[in-house]
Structures are given as structure tokens and as C-alpha cells.
Amino acid sequence: MNNWQLPEGIDELTGEQAVTFESIRRRLLDLYQSWGYELVVPPMVEYIESLILTSNSVDQKTFKFLDSSSGRMLGVHSD
């Protein structure tokens, strides 16, 4: 029995798949940089009101949890 389970839509890459994915990612980053684009890394977690939850489907796919220091809800982007 495999106890290691991931939510639907979440994949784990290991071994050769991970190496191939990273190689493609790096080549794309280099290509975009050569065209003058700059890298932007958005935050993975934001206050829920900052996320534009345009539909019930997006809202249901957003992982939400409570920020114990502020009492506000946080969300992880569903994409």
C-alpha cells in the first residue's frame, strides 16, 4: 500500500523526469532573458482577499489556512 498521496493536479517529478523538466525550464529562462524579460517570482501565499477569486471553481481549488498572528485567511495559488 502506498501511503504517499498527493492531491489531484499535484505531481512530483523525480529522477530523469526532474532533470528533463529543469533543463527545459533553464533553457526557457535563458531564452526569455535574451529577449529582455526579467524574472519575476510571485509569492506562493497571500492574504485571501488579495487573490482574485473570480469563480467558485477557483475558490474551491485555493488552499486556505489561518494566519495565527493576524487572524486573517491566507491562500495558496491554485495554479
UniProtKB/TrEMBL annotation:
Note the InterPro entries from the entry.
aa-tRNA-synth_II/BPL/LPL (IPR045864), HisRS-like_core (IPR041715)
Query: Which organism was this protein described from?
Result: marine metagenome
One Pfam family recorded for the sequence:
tRNA-synt_His
The record places domain Class II Histidinyl-tRNA synthetase (HisRS)-like catalytic core at 9-79
Q: What is this protein called?
A: Class II Histidinyl-tRNA synthetase (HisRS)-like catalytic core domain-containing protein
Under the heading SUPFAM superfamilies, the entry gives: Class II aaRS and biotin synthetases
